[in-house]
Amino acid sequence: MLxxxxxxxxxxxxxxxxxxxxxxGVMFGFFLGVSFTSLLFKKLNITxxxxxxxxxxxxxxxxxxxxxxxxxSHKNEVVKDISKIWVPSNPKGAERLPPGIVASGSDLYLxxxxxxxxxxxxxxxxxxxxxxxxxxxxxxxxxxxxxxxxNFTILLFHYDGRASExxxxxxxxxxxxxxxxxxxxxxxxxxxxxxxxxxxxxxxxIWDEDLGVEHFDAEEYIKLVRKYSLEISQPGLDxxxxxxxxxxxxxxxxxxxxxxxxxxxxxxxxxxxxxxAFVEIMAPVFSREAWRCVWHLIQNDLVHGWGLDFALQxxxxxxxERIGVVDAQWVVHQTLPSLGNQGQEENGKPPxxxxxxxxxxxxxxxxxxxxxxxxxxYKSIGxxxxxxxxxx
Length: 392
What we know:
Elements: H1 2-83, E1 127-133, H2 138-145, E2 152-158, E3 176-179, H3 185-192, E4 203-207, E5 211-212, H4 218-227, E6 232-237, E7 256-257, E8 285-287, H5 288-297, H6 308-311, H7 319-322, E9 323-333, H8 351-380
Parallel strand pairs: 1-2, 1-4, 2-3, 6-9
Antiparallel strand pairs: 4-8, 5-9, 6-8, 7-9
C-alpha cells in the first residue's frame, strides 16, 4: 500500500516537471516569436522607408529628366530653327549654304598643284577664244592663235580626237584641250561654256577653224567693240571670198557698221535680221552679259547652230545698236569642209551631204520651236500672238 503511494507521488512529480517544461518552452517560444516579428517589422520598416525614399528619388529624377528632355528638346528646336540656313537668293540647290561660301562662278585658268592658291596666277586673262579644230588645220589655227595676246585663254575643241598631237606648238602647252569625236562647236559650247564657267571673261570668241587672220588683231578688235558698245559682234568678212550676207561683208574706210540693205522683201523691218541686229555663226564674239542669254538660246540637240544668227537679237536691247560688224579688223572665210567630212557616207552620197541636210533640218526645227515658244508665251499672259510681228 505504501509502495503504491510512493509510485503515485513520483509519477505526479514527473508530470509536473513536464508540464512546467512545456509551459516554459511555450513561453520562450512566444517571447522569441514576438521578438523576431518585432525585429522583422523594424527591418521591413527600414527597407520600406528606403524603398520609399528611392521611389521618391527615382520619381524626382524621372520627372527632372523628363522636364530636362522637354526643355532640351525645346532648346534644340529653338537652336535648330536659329541655326538652320536657308538663303533663297543663293543659286538653286545652294540655299542651305551660307552666302559667304557660295562660289557660283568659275573660270578656265590653269592652276598649280602646289604652293599657295593666291599665288597660282601671275595674271588673269580677261578674254576667252575657242576654236573647234581638226589636226589637218593646225597651220591655220597656229596662225590664228598668234593673233591673240596673253590676255586670252585659248581653248581648243577637238572633233577628230587628236588633242595630244598639238604639243609641237609652244602655245598649245598652256592652252586647254577638250576632245570629243565628230562634234560641233555648238555642241561643245552648250556643254563646256556655261555662263557661270566663263563668268571671268569680258568677251568670248567662238570661232571656226577656217578663218584667215592676216588683217586681224584681237586687242584692237576689243578696243573697237568697247568703243561702239557692241554686245554681239563679228569681224567683217572679205567680200571677195565666198558667199555671205550683205550685213557681214567688210566695208572699207570705217570702223564698224550696224545695218545693211539686202534683196527686196528680205527685210520688212530694217532694224531686224538680216539687215540689222545680225552676225553669222562662224566667228561671233559675245560680251559676258550677252553670252548668258545666248547660252540658254542654244538648243541641246540642235548641234549645228543654224538659225541662231537670226535669233541672237533677242539677247540684247536695242539689238540694232548693240550688234554690229567690225570692219577695221577683218577675216577671210576660207570655207573648208573639214567638219563636213566628219559625216557618214550614205546611199553613195559623200559624207558632207548628210551633214548639210542635217543643218537645213535643224534650221527649220529651230525656227518652229522659236515660233511655238513665242506663241505659247503670249497666250499664257492672255495676248493674241497674231497681233505681234515675228522677230525671226
